[in-house]
């Protein structure tokens, strides 16, 4: 491991076995299927950690249980757990989650992103920044940040 | 809610399409939309352009007459007409504020000046009542005051430091040269001059003065200038009051006091608030809705003197970033949204069906 990393030796967990959804045999293909927790997890789990060659799932930064969806009200809340309390990459991870969701979800969705309470030294500041749309919009006009985010979102990592 | 409340409506008159990204800001051109002069509205967007829309006298509908591009290289966050309507100032994330002039009056806007100095994203721009000064604010936590000189020259008078986080909006008082700024640091600051272009912060409205507990996004004054409304990420709007006679007496700033807090009406961030000339407060919020509030005698018991007049759900398909009443046609409201559209609304009393 090269030195200078925020968390040089993160705990890596095995990938969870997916719960399978119990789809009824006679599926009405035209019926509107509400977006659920697993569907959201399926679009987020593979995202690469900004400083490790592991996915957010493998580092348990994100779990299916930390995703709360209310499809009727078009509301989604994602709670992530930084690997260390002083993780300076927390805002980048949050930005990755937000960008991925912006690209995948219907525009009617309202998304709140936060760090798991008690898992980050500057929790309130990180949450405030991630949910300030003006700051997010400005960050997404910063080519360096966008490159960083896109690298984490690249589908090659599996 | 009593029956009288249901007799008002906010009717969508037109939906203006053309921007290709979020629309962040709006400004009605002063002295238009009255005396046979067609109404003119400017909008600015994440698509880096400003659009100028004019109402056709024949059909009453708005058309895009100009697209102002090539001056800003990033999101244009806010726009403001000079009081005389000759100039349009636009603030951008590219750290500059551009001044546009339509010299020929034929929607042939030319960028005549660029105000540079902020370190990063400029978020708001405001002209004082006489048009002699401009204020700008940025993520760099500073507020700048510029003097408007002849021949499109602008001179930086002062750089005001005091906010501890990015400054979301600057707004001059409508009749006295006192400047207000609100910030991500949860405060509103009041800035005044004590002669010799010496500006300083004379008041900070924060949590200890019954202020907001999260980012303050916007503020607006009533027609008389003795009341101010602010809106916040804390899901409340707050009404503030000051002694306007004292302000006009040249005593400098009168203290602004918290009058009341309207909570429980919004459940997502309130980005924009605007007080109409005839007393109706409109808000634009992240729940896609527009709400109208009005002063009321009913609520005196619990100390709240304002009531919700109506809530327009799904006013837009996405967040409402800006609401702006026309200063001339009192019943006309414009709104701007993340959905890329601008909408024109008409507020009216419903005809009662007998």
Automatic annotation (TrEMBL), chain A:
Q: From which domain of life does this come?
A: Eukaryota
Sequence segments annotated as region (Disordered): 1-20
Q: Which InterPro entries match?
A: FSCA_dom_sf, MIP18
* Residues making up the signal peptide according to the UniProt record: none
Which intervals carry biased composition (Polar residues)? 1-10
Mind telling me which PANTHER family this protein's record contains? CYTOSOLIC IRON-SULFUR ASSEMBLY COMPONENT 2B (PTHR12377:SF0), CYTOSOLIC IRON-SULFUR ASSEMBLY COMPONENT 2B-RELATED (PTHR12377)
Give the family, as the similarity comment puts it: Belongs to the MIP18 family.
Name of this chain's protein = MIP18 family-like domain-containing protein
Automatic annotation (TrEMBL), chain B:
- Which UniProt keywords are given for this protein, alphabetically ordered? Repeat, WD repeat
Taxonomic superkingdom: Eukaryota
Q: Where are the WD repeats?
A: 16-54, 69-101, 115-148, 160-191, 209-240, 313-354
Extract the coiled-coil ranges from the record: none
Q: Which GO terms describe its biological process?
A: iron-sulfur cluster assembly
Claim: Repeat is one of the keywords in the record: yes
Q: Which InterPro entries match?
A: CIAO1/Cia1, WD40/YVTN_repeat-like_dom_sf, WD40_PAC1, WD40_repeat_CS, WD40_repeat_dom_sf, WD40_rpt
Q: In the record, which residues are listed under signal peptide? A: none
Q: Which family does it belong to?
A: Belongs to the WD repeat CIA1 family.
Q: What is this protein called?
A: Probable cytosolic iron-sulfur protein assembly protein CIAO1 homolog
Cited function:
Essential component of the cytosolic iron-sulfur (Fe/S) protein assembly machinery. Required for the maturation of extramitochondrial Fe/S proteins.
């Amino acid at each position: 491991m090269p030195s200078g990393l925020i968390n040089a030796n993160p705990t890596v967990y095995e990938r969870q076995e997916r719960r399978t959804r119990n789809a009824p045999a006679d599926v009405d293909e035209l019926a509107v299927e509400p977006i659920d927790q697993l569907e959201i997890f399926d679009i987020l789990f593979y995202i690469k950690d900004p400083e490790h060659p592991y996915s957010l799932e493998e580092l348990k930064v994100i779990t299916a249980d930390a995703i709360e969806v209310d499809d009727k009200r078009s509301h989604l809340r994602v709670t992530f757990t930084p690997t260390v309390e002083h993780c300076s990459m927390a805002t980048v991870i949050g930005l990755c989650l937000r960008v991925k969701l912006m690209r995948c979800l219907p525009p009617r969705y309202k998304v709140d992103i936060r760090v798991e309470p008690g898992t980050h030294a500057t929790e309130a500041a990180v949450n405030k920044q991630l949910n300030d749309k003006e700051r997010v919009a400005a960050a997404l006009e910063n080519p360096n940040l966008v490159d960083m985010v896109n690298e984490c979102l690249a589908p090659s990592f599996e | 809610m009593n029956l009288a409340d249901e007799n008002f409506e906010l009717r969508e008159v037109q939906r203006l399409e053309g921007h290709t990204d979020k629309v962040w800001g709006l400004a009605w051109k002063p002295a238009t939309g009255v005396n046979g002069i067609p109404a003119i509205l400017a909008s600015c967007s994440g698509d880096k352009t400003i659009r100028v829309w004019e109402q056709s006298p024949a059909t009453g509908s708005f058309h895009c007459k100009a697209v102002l591009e090539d001056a800003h290289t990033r999101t244009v966050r806010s726009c403001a007409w000079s009081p005389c309507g000759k100039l349009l100032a636009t603030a951008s994330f590219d750290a500059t504020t551009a001044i546009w002039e339509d010299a020929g009056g034929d929607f042939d806007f030319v960028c005549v000046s660029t105000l540079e100095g902020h370190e990063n994203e400029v978020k708001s721009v405001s002209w004082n009542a006489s048009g002699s000064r401009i204020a700008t604010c940025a993520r760099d936590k500073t507020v700048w005051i510029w003097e408007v000189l002849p021949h499109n020259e602008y001179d930086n008078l002062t750089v005001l430091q005091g906010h501890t986080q990015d400054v979301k909006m600057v707004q001059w008082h409508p009749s006295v040269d006192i400047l207000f700024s609100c910030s991500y640091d949860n405060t509103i600051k009041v800035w005044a001059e004590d002669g010799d272009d010496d500006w300083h912060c004379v008041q900070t409205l924060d949590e200890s003065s019954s202020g907001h507990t999260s980012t303050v996004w916007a503020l607006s004054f009533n027609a008389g200038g003795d009341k101010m409304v602010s809106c916040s990420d804390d899901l409340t709007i707050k009404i503030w009051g000051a002694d306007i006679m004292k302000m006009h007496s040249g005593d400098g700033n009168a203290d602004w006091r918290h009058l009341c807090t309207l909570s429980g009406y919004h459940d997502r961030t309130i980005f924009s608030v605007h007080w109409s000339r005839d007393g109706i407060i409109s808000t634009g919020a992240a729940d896609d809705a527009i709400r109208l509030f009005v002063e009321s005698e009913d609520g005196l018991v619990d100390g709240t003197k304002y009531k919700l007049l109506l809530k327009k759900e799904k006013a837009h398909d996405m967040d409402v970033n800006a609401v702006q009443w026309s200063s001339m046609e009192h019943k006309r409201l414009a709104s701007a949204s993340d959905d890329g559209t601008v909408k024109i609304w008409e507020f009216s009393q419903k005809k009662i069906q007998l």
